[in-house]
Amino acid sequence: MPHSLLAPTPAGPGLAPRYREPAARRPSANPYVRLFALPGTRAFTAGNLVARLPMGMFSVSAVIMIAGGYGSYALAGAVTATGLAATAVVAPWTARLVDRYGQARVAVPAALLAVLGQLALVLCVRAGAPAWTLFACYAATATAPNTGGMSRARWAHLYRDDPAARHTANAFEQAADELCFMLGPVLAAFLCAALFPEAGSLAGAALFLGGVLVFAAQRSTEPPPSPRVSAGSPLRAPGMAPLLGVFLALGAVFGAMEVVTLAYVDGPAAGPVLALQAAGSCAAGLLYGRVRRTVGLVPCLVAMTALMALPLLAASGGALPALAGALLVAGMATAPTLVTGMSRVQSLTPPSRLNEGMTLAVTALLGGIAAGSAAGGWTVEHVGAVYGYVLPVAAAGTALLPAALPGHAASRRP
Fold this sequence. Notes:
Number of helices: 18
CATH class of the largest domain: Mainly Alpha
Order of helices and strands: EEHHHHHHHHHHHHHHHHHH
Radius of gyration: 21 Å
């Protein structure tokens, strides 16, 4: 007797309908086809990708715009660093409001405030306003909601009874992150150079707000809010603190690798060469999402530490093509590691605080990126770019310490 590919089953109050595939069809089905078979998933993913692309545009656009208007890369770097610090403080609070009052209700006004901050920054640069106004405007963009975290929360809600589908969803989201951070800076630099210095910021603001509006409009897939949150802070969950330490060290890997590579290549080829690391991570993330078994965080970090030594070896030889290939291969360890780590965050965080828990992980990553960037810049200036490639290896090895702590959840398989 013919049957539909997706058969609905009853859902509880406030929950999205659950779907069960026929058992005979499951083993041979492409996991990504299954992932997007649920109604509404393609629409919210499309809006989320549009909103996420500017995350890789804003900082590059701000640096080009401010450096061009004020003639100071130091000022541009200080302004973007201030925005990063403000985001680290504000983002968990925004995520807590999202958990409590719902994604659409909080994300739209939070995105509007962030876009107003971007527009104010453009106006201040255009008018040559005092430097302190730039800091204030860019700090206002910290209200931008964590669109990637909200998307992961939707997948976790829709596939709350299907760990394999959640694994595929996390892999897809990580690959999407890498793709956006690979294309975003290239798009921003092109717009600023081809049109005018403020074009990258304006285009990013329009894409971000439009994407958030489309994403928020998909109410059928939105997790129900938890107005009366009884669960404690995700920070108090056993194993969460060492896991955030892992994310902090991973951020240092990315921050150091970016600055050191830009200094080592020192030319127009720097962007494409650096993008190869994100390309390798994107491809590995999509492949990792297709496997039916996951590995623990410690094996992922061991592989990452080993592969991060490849750029160091290539840079020591002085051949740019070798460095490009090494970055491509080294990037392949990134997505599986972050997917495994984010899966651990989801398993440790109460459902009513899921956005907050994932935003804490992203905040730890941002803090690590800032520290890695600073350490990479100091090393390049005082020791040399080749020796700067020691930092990503050391940071990846450091991430192993909290992950391998006996008895902590960070060391277990998701």
